[in-house]
Design brief:
The structure is a homodimer of 320-residue chains. With 320 residues, chain A is α/β, with parallel strands linked by helices. Chain A contains twelve helices and ten strands. In chain A, helix 2 crosses helix 9, helix 4 runs antiparallel to helix 5 and helix 11 packs antiparallel against helix 12. Chains A and B meet through strand 7, strand 8, strand 9, helix 12 and strand 10 of A and strand 7, strand 8, strand 9, helix 11 and strand 10 of B.
């Protein structure tokens, strides 16, 4: 049983000192590795790890082909500015090969998880010679996995993997007692920029979680373009999250007087405090109509755009 | 080449007299039959035919299982009030049998058309002994078929059917020179109630046109319930058309803390003058959110509801 530290109770300086000491003690004279996704949790772990180990922590950003437009450059830029080196590993082909032909959401998620841990990151760890892996697992990840709401990709037990046996490394999870708010407070104390915290939540499987049906480079590119429009247009509403989803269903459209059986993009924008319940953001209709126009203009083959009007529950924030 | 009569140019009394004379002359001492869908065109043809032939016109409403809640009762009620007898032919099993396993929109539409003309109505005509069939084809049907936008199910040529050869009857199309506005003016002159004209446009294939993927009795019932909510909630906006669509894509939902892979309903509500271009009606957000709540409550298995925000073109009014 993990003992929670609330954001209010969190004394960042003593927490940092304690975790830095623990990481140093665990890693000893060896080296460690961690994967940076650009999310708050993995970013905070990166900072904490570098504070503890300096160059003996190798931070890798795996380019899985499922990230948003400009995201790799943006994330590496944040850390370059803090003098923390990040290595980008291009594994796009491996992920798309693993996803080929898959349509079931759980199977797709599983393929991404397996490709990441067993294949790509496993190889990177082996090549690095590191004996320790730093992970950004937080308390909420455990709760949601237990509740069966989702399978957190960063909880190893879920995979039935003993990392030490399988890959020869030990896992360190310095954030396991915290929730989002505490992680954010810690990240600020570690010097991470506001911009990084301002980024809206983004799921582990990346844009694959925004594609209903098969995840191909073309379909990811379609939802990437739609996401770019949605994020640019909806960033000003203080919404909890906003996203674009590429549907598999085809709907009739018409271009230049001719019938075209095309694709549909669904836009969701949520007002929420803690993601447990959420309501659709009341975006002005002018903007919704503009969103519709820009998405059909920006994404080839898209003839229809919808906006979510259901609440969570029974909806969920993401579609798959 | 059919010569158009505009609504403005239409002199209803002389048009009625002319068409009544033409129908009488064509049918002679024989009998005629017509299919009433409840749409304006077939309703006007029914009135015109009865004016010409009285009891020698048999009017049949084919219950194909694809109509809206209460629609059969409503339509037959309109005509009962006008002393025009309408026979209801229950062909639900035949239509659902023909639709079983079909997912392609064109194939589904074709199955409905073929089941209607070759099977159900063909049999009814034969049983009736009628030599003439009255049809409510209007000029717009021909235009849209020529443009390839849709295949009007009531244009026989499209089917490669010579009705006289195939079924032994001749087709009469007394409304072929008119467009919607003219037909409506004619219907008013023939005594049809305002309520009938006030009904929003409804596609030939009925609720099958509102189901993406396979059309089963269960899936039609789902979209029927959603349609009932949508029509009740959105009737007050003076919108051109409003509809519910059952998607085939599954999306994640959550009920009682447990994940549920559920269905999605899309709502469309259009402002339009002539259906050639259309924009989404700016329904207040209170009502949209209420729509979302009522649909997930009314339709088992539905966890998500969206509202269309794209314009026509490149969208179309209906989805399939």
């Amino acid at each position: 049983m993990v003992k929670e530290i609330t954001a209010q109770a969190l004394d960042t300086e003593s927490f940092i000192n304690e975790k830095v000491a623990e990481i140093r003690s665990a890693v000893g004279k060896g080296t460690a590795i961690n994967a940076l996704s650009g999310g708050v949790d993995s970013s905070v772990v990166t900072m904490l790890g570098h504070r503890a180990l300096g160059d003996r922590l190798k931070t890798v950003l795996v380019e899985n082909g499922l990230m948003r437009a400009g995201e790799v450059e943006q994330v590496t830029g944040f850390f370059r500015a803090l003098d923390v080196p990040v290595q980008v590993a291009d594994a796009r082909n491996e992920f798309f090969a693993a996803l080929r032909g898959l349509t079931d959401p759980e199977t797709k998620r599983e393929a991404i998880t397996q490709t990441f841990y067993r294949q790509v990151f496993g190889r990177l760890v082996k090549e690095s010679g590191a004996q320790h892996l730093l992970q950004g697992t937080i308390l909420t990840d455990i709760d949601e996995t237990v509740a069966g709401i989702k399978r957190q990709h960063n909880v190893f037990e879920q995979l039935g993997i003993d990392p030490e046996e399988a890959f020869g490394y030990k896992i360190l999870e310095p954030l396991i007692q915290l929730r989002k708010e505490g992680v954010r407070k810690l990240g600020e104390a570690l010097g991470l920029p506001d911009e990084l915290f301002g980024r809206i939540p983004f799921p582990g499987p990346g844009l694959a979680a925004r594609v209903i049906g098969e995840v191909t480079p073309e379909r990811v590119e379609a939802v990437r373009r739609a996401t770019e429009v949605v994020e640019a247009k909806l960033s000003g509403f203080g919404a909890f999250q906003y996203l674009a989803i590429l549907h598999e269903d085809r709907v009739t459209g018409i271009r230049e007087g001719r019938r075209e059986f095309g694709q549909q993009i669904e836009v969701r924008c949520w007002d929420s405090v803690d993601a447990r319940t959420a309501t659709p953001t009341r975006v002005p209709f002018d903007l919704l109509e503009q969103l519709g126009r820009e998405i059909v203009a920006a994404v080839p083959g898209v003839v229809s755009v919808t906006y979510n009007i259901a609440c969570k529950p029974p909806s969920t924030i993401e579609a798959i």
